[in-house]
Amino acid sequence: MMGNTMKYLSMCCCLLWGTSLVCADDTDELKRIKENYTSMLLPVAEAVDSLQVDWNRIEPEREMSDQVVVELHQRYPFDLAKIEGYVAKLSDDGSWTDINYLDKKRSGWEPKQHAERILELAKLYCSPVTGYYRSETLKQVIHRALGYWFSAKHKCPNWWYNQIGIPKTLGTAFILLEDQLSGQEKAGAIEVMENSKFGMTGQNKVWLAGNVLIRALLQNDAELVKMARDTIASEIVLGRREGIKDDWSFHQHGPQQQFGNYGLSFVSGMSFFYRLFKGTAYEFDGPQVDILTSLVNEGYKWTIWNRMMDISALGRQLFHNAQLHKAYGLAFAAADLGIGGFPARGNLLVGHKHFDDSDYTVHRSKSWMGTVKMSSNRVIGTELVNEDNLKGYYLGDGATYFYVRGDEYLNVFPFWDWRKVPGVTAYEDVAPVPDINVTRSGNKTDNVGGLSDGKCGMAAMELNRDGLTACKAWLFTGDEVLCLGAGISSDSALCVTTSIDQRLQCGTLEVLDKNAWREVSGKENFLKEDLRFFHDRTGYVVLGSGNCMAEAGKRTGSWHDFMKMYRPATTEGEVVSLYLSHGVKPENAGYQYLVFPDSNKEAIKDFDVNGVNVIRNDATAQVVSMPAAGKGYWIAAYKPVQLDMEGLPLEIHVPGIYYVERENGCLQQKSVKPFRPSGKKRNFHFK
After folding, report:
1. One of 154, 215, 253, 320 is an active-site residue; which one?
2. Over 60: is that where the pLDDT of 9 sits?
3. How confident is residue 18, by pLDDT bands cut at 50, 70 and 90?
4. Which of 565, 590, 648 is nearest to 469 (CA)?
5. Where does the record place the catalytic residues (predicted)?
6. Which member of 262, 394, 403, 591 is catalytic?
7. How far apart are the C-alpha atoms of 313 and 101, rounded to whole Å?
């Protein structure tokens, strides 16, 4: 009996001893995570980041909404003059006199600046790199500002700020200031963080879990830390409706490409958590790290050119300097993951890729990049949420951009004719651009896709929207892009146009007239065949007859007109626009034109159009051969069709994109990409 009792007591002691060990280990792990958190947030005097030498290229923004841009600005060196202004403008009650706390905007909500300033002050207070380290004056300012926020309890009409944005910003400050918080302040901090609960999908799910993680650290709750970590890591997977797709694009709000919006926040967040958990029991495992690395290398790298992000990758977030900010946000995130390959100059990635899950094509040569964004029954082209992207109705209708420097379209948006987004066929009208949320017609077709051989490729899109139909194809080679349109039809009394390009003016727009180049000034109409234009290292050749408009000069506009977060103000810029007019109620109209990025006037003048063999260009099929695209034929077939390929028959049964070559007296299919049929339609509710 005594032996059993001693054995029982011995077992209990072992269990208790084991539990204390686990608790001790948990405490050590949480301490290590907090130390990682602090070291990642605070600048070190002697540290020199290769990316941070470019701060002079990234001008600070005064009006910000996007979380990635906010966090990019948080990396800036301390602006002591600005911070001294914060101290001077703080009222006795802890509010700032220059913040509109009554603001009700859903995007760019001004009270968020209060939280951002607290974080900035907290970082300065905790950082030994300036004389403000542990400053008593700064400490009192921080506590007054915290007290105001805890008592005022401001709420935004947009749930995102209340549940994600504010807790994320203030939570970071709470971690830094943990040893400075009074019991009452600690309770206020926990109350703020309790606005975030586990739930939702994709990046929203990760944001919420990250905020729960902060609360768990403040409460020293190891079990909740593990739950938050596991929730975050659970999104590092493929194959879900939202999140990382099999083609390494990123979707949110349904089947919609969101590289630069939710996707970039995902990469930035995951790179942060990768470093945060590094060296602890919570660190990501090998397969999870491999997925994140592939997402950057196989997905994001395709969207960046000279540290500028492609407009079509931005989603609805067409903010001021968005292309620059998003690219740098990605470069910092990639660096945190140990991934390089984002040079400020030059191109390390050459090739052609079509993102099947996103109806998105990217072509990269050594000296230029071109992209096409399409939409279909499967893929949503764009969205309007929180008054972002009020004029972006046509952004998924074949938007086509060409980059040599990378800044060709930087901040052009206030000056755009939004019905003439480059590459798009649409109605010409002085009426407001349709509201996406009211006229969410989408592109009602399955006939959209892309085919690549790795170096060249074709994208094709049947357009069926708002009573306008067209068949559009793009063939990318190393030196040029052939753009084809056919079957352009509408019964509308509005004129239909196809935009060739619309970008910032850089130098003169010139037209080849009587075998000599002359400047285009103002707006001119050209009806002649074989038109040739040159502007900003890019040549344009319009084949056949057509009605082409060319325009160069000043325009005025306002960021507020399409992004309500900005204050109303008129700005001025210079724009070059080239577009084709198909007239009113066109029936089976078409077009053929080539774009030559990174070219020169001599090459455009001497280009031999006889090398471009357009065999067929109608609403059934578009067939072309070009030496620069291989020795075969590229075909976009929108219906089953019997083709005659210069004397050789070819029968196509399944709509799609084909590449065929002559072999032994017949045609051989070398590569095929059938258009994917859409699945069951879903209704998507956006927040």
Report:
1. 253
2. no
3. very low
4. 590
5. 253, 262, 316
6. 262
7. 33
Please give the structure tokens belonging to residue 521.
């000034």
For the chain, what is the radius of gyration of the CA atoms? Answer: 28
Q: How far apart are CA 3 and CA 303, in angstroms?
A: 72
Q: Which of 316, 325, 535, 582 is catalytic?
A: 316
Nearest CA to 429 out of 387, 393, 389 is that of: 393
Q: Return d(Cα 144, Cα 159) in angstroms, integer.
A: 26
- pLDDT score of 340: 87
What is the average pLDDT value for the chain, to the nearest integer?
91
pLDDT at position 685 is 33
Are 362 and 315 in a shared domain? no
For 192-223, write each residue's pLDDT tens digit. Answer: 999 999 999 888 999 999 999 999 999 999 99
Task: Respond yes or no: is residue 325 known to be catalytic.
Answer: no
What are the backbone angles phi and psi of residue 92, rounded to the nearest 5°?
Answer: -60, -30
What total number of domains does the chain contain? 3
Work out the pLDDT band at 8, boundaries 50, 70, 90.
very low
Shared domain for 332 and 376, answered yes or no, is no
Please indicate whether residue 262 is annotated as part of the active site.
yes
Averaged over 515-537, what is the pLDDT?
Answer: 95
Active site residue 253: yes
Angle subtended at Cα 453 by Cα 308 and Cα 677, rounded to the nearest 5 degrees: 90
Per the domain annotation, does 598 fall within a domain?
A: yes
Q: Answer whether 67's CB lies under 8 Å from 198's CB.
A: no
Say how far apart CA 244 and CA 299 lie, in whole Å. 10
Q: What is the pTM of this model?
A: 0.89
Which of 349, 374, 396 is a domain's end point? Answer: 349
Which pLDDT tens digit goes with each residue over 104-163? 999 889 999 999 999 999 999 999 988 999 999 999 999 999 999 999 999 999 999 999
Q: Whole domain around residue 309: which residue ranges?
A: 239-349
Do residue 541 and residue 441 come from a single domain?
yes
Kind plus residue range of the DSSP H or E element containing 149: helix 136-152
Find tokens 């996103």 and name the residue.
Answer: 358
Residue 35, CA distances (Å) to 28, 32, 268, 289, 568 in order: 10, 5, 20, 22, 44
